[in-house]
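Marked as duplicate of an earlier ticket. Keeping the data here for the record.
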Amino acid sequence: MNNNLNDIRYENLEKLPPSAKLVFKTLESNGQMTQKDIIRETILPSRTVRYALNRLKEEKILMEKFYFLDSRQSLYEIKRQVSSALAV
């Protein structure tokens, strides 16, 4: 059953816009990042990164965590189930 869930999430990733895929790959490669870090790494406009993060959250591919060093920001990371499913 877990494979079915991962297959569904992979299909959800396939239908996302290129910016969301780039953000996904960036987070997959670098681990936890703030929105500012993602903007700096991808060279995408902030509005595009916000949209990509929202789309990934809607598809339940992304986790948003509290960032203790700066409470105005959040940390984003890919859910482990999704990342391991795509590695296979």
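See parent ticket for discussion. The radius of gyration is 13 Å.
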